[in-house]
Structures are given as C-alpha cells and as structure tokens.
Amino acid sequence: xxxxxxxxxxxxxxxxRKFVATHVLPYIDDWEEAGEFPRDLYREAGDAGLLxxxxxxxxxxxxxxxxxxxxxxxxxxxxxxxxxxxxSLGSLDIGLPPVAKWARPEIRDQIVPPVLRGExxxxxxxxxxxxxxxxxxxxxRAVREGDHYIVNGSKTFITSGLRAxxxxxxxxxxxxxxxGISLLLIDRDMPGFATGKKLRKMGWWASDTAELFFEDCRxxxxxxxxxxxxxxxxxxxxxxxxxxxxxIMAYMTAEIALEASMAYANERLAFGRNIAGFQVTRHKLVDxxxxxxxxxxxxxxxxxxxxxxxxPIKQVAMAKNFAVDVCEKVxxxxxxxxxxxxxxxxxxxxxxxxxxxxxSIGGGTTEIMKELIAKQIKL
Length: 379
Known about the structure:
3 domains, Butyryl-CoA Dehydrogenase, subunit A, domain 2, Butyryl-Coa Dehydrogenase, subunit A, domain 1
C-alpha cells in the first residue's frame, strides 16, 4: 500500500471490508435493480463505527483530524461496486459537518449522535433547478419572522432526499451574491416541507435522489447554522472534504474496473488463447493500471496536506479532475475489454461505467474545478 497508513488504518480497513462482504455484496445487485437499499443498513453501518469516522468523539464519532482513517473506510465502502450506495450511506458526510461545527450546542447534541448511530439520516441541500454549480446565486429564500424563518423555494438532485430526517439547507437571507447566504437545519416534519418523487438516473441507481420543496416552511430561528449570511464560507469549507471523497470514489471505481478487466482478460479465450496474451490487451491494461496508480497517489498527497492543516484548494480540485478523467477512461476501456459481456447489466463494469459519469458533475463540475484552479495559479 503506502506509507500514509498505520496499524490503526489497517484495522479499520479490515473492519470496513468485512462489513461490505457481509452486509452489502450479497445483496447489492438486487438493491441496484430495486433502486434503493434497506434503511437498516444505516444502523448496521453505525454499529460498525463506519458513520462516525471523522466526527468528534464527544458526539459519538471516532475523533477528528485523521484524514487517512476516512480514506481507508471510503475505499473499502467503494468495494461494494455501487457508487450510489456509498453516496446515500455517506450523505451525512456532506450534510452533518456544518451542524457538528457551527450549530447551536443544544441542536448539535440533539441531531448529530443519532445520525452517527444510523438511527437518523442527514443530507445536504444546495443545488437548485437551473442553478447547478452557481451556488452564489441560489434563490431559495428565508425571511425572519419573530422566532422563525419562513422558507420558500426548491432544491434538486438531493442525495438521500426521499428519506433523510434532517437537511442542511442553503438559503438566501440577505442580498445578492455569496454574502447573502445562510445555512438552516430543516427537519422533514417541519410545516411547509415536501419532497418530490424519486428521480431516475443514468447511474447511482441505489442512491435515493429527490427534489425538495419549501412553501412557507416554518423553521425555528435556533436552527440557523453559524451566523446569518455567513453560510457560503461554511459551504466552501465543506467542499474541500467532499471533493477529496469524490476523487477517492473516482480512482476506486477505476481500480475495481481494472481488477475485473485483468481477471476477465486472463479467462476469456479468443483465437486459441486468453485475450491477455495479445499485446494490445496487455498494453491497454498497463495504461489503465498506470493511470489508477497516479490518481490514487496524488489524492493521497492531497489528503496528507489536509492532515497537515493546509488548505489545498488547488490540489484537491486537480486531484478530483484527474481522478475523474482516469475513471471515465478506465471504465470505458474495461467495457471494451469485456466486449459484449461489458454491455450486460450482470457485468460489474457496466455499472461502474454508468456510475463514473456523475463524478465529473458532483461537488462542482470539471469546468468549475478548472476555473477554481485558474484563480489559484493566477491566470
């Protein structure tokens, strides 16, 4: 593996691998076809300590600061072969950090521990219809009236949107631009909140994705996360960890596709020998392996910078873009190596190929990442 990991990380890896082998892999094909997985899996993951990685011990987590503990658990969860399952099971990783860091203590202590135990589900709601990556111009508005905010607007493409209990929602409380954005913690049962039907997607089938609607939704004022009109800073700080996780999802999707392709190439016979015996196939596999290794190691370097307390905005954006590009190339080649079988839904590379595409969109599109990098290198 790598010098980035220690014995504790190795133990966590084995624990997560056992969880996936026992609780996920025997059922994942059925869950993919059904478009969802049992809610009980959250509690099982909570019992295994997988949901609390990176959260404060005082709130029921494993402790803060060890980025590589999160890396190993994320890598092993991706061994489920389902990016959708990992995204929904891990929606707390983007929805809950602002609550844990900036919500009022009494709200934080009420909300965070049950989510880490898998008893409740948390999600993040930022994206709006027609808005996409243009976070600074979101339109969902929250107006203060006495002890409540009255929220009107909608969100879309929200992971865990159908069954999350708590949503960290970006709203406009002030003027135009990033300076007028706040975060509110909105519960499913609050008056004026509603969800649309489950959204049908190209990939991530097992992921619960939905639209959210707010019509005069009454949210207690103490559900404000952090200071009013300071939500954009919290959103941006959250993006760094999210983009690192997306880079991990990308190189792991590619790695699983590579492993499946190597196994298939050594089994599939053509013209009297296995297809790994042809130079064109061997070289293709070599190129795939090289790309996966480079994507993984650069992502590890970004994680090390974060572990050291740095703020590697440029590097993480580069890592995400590079890993996603590798993912799309490797999964495409994996389908090609599998031939007709690669086009069949019973083949894991078919799923990986579909799942790969969303990674260049989520957490900020490839194009947005390039603009971010351009600013960092002063273009």
